[in-house]
Amino acid sequence: MTVRTLLRRFEDSDVEITVYGPPATKTVGERLATQGIDATWQKLPTGHRNAFAVIRRDGVFAEAVPLTALQAFLCDPTAGIGDSEAPDSDPGRQLLRSALANTLLASLTPAQLLATSHEFEDRAYRVGEGTLRVSFQSLSIFRSQRARYQTLASDTELDIHVYGRDDWEPPAIPGISFHPLTDTALEQVWLLAFDAAGDDQNKCALVAEETEDGPFRGLWTYNLRLVDEIMTAVVAVDE
Question: Which of 45, 62, 222, 223 has the least C-beta neighbours within 10 A?
């Protein structure tokens, strides 16, 4: 399996969002459109207060989330997240990610991917054991996340594996194994996969590939079989 063949499976994702709240916000509407998601707006007499978004997949209700969670993901996904802090979580963001799981998003920014990665790192932190595999494209990118991963390694029993192009020699960190890539298969990929030590409720993975135009194209998943497949594919690249 390659990332490209994996993402191709989800090209027919059919997701629609109806926002119940204030009049349509141009920024939110435009950013949903760039992700390939159709959106409609229904005005609520309460305006911003109690505004929410209903997400449907293939015409079937999937989830209702606070509009603030949708706006945060689209417009300011890393608000309140500190790289050097222990992982945290937000119920609204978690609902949104659950509803959009297995949805191929066409134009993900690094900030959106970072916010999603932090949510999954939070799961790993809470579970406290299992294997976490992360591709940073190049090892030098890991430097910006070093403090965060030192916390993950020191506070848990996680077995952490970091992959990336060999452009920097990382320091030895107990609990973290570094894998300089000799294969280009992951060099354009942002990837995080967590097996949760057999805890099926917390298995998760994020996979995105950088496009020629700059943004990333990808998805996240909680599907047990798919997470296992992604974990296996990462190991195979390093063999």
Answer: 45
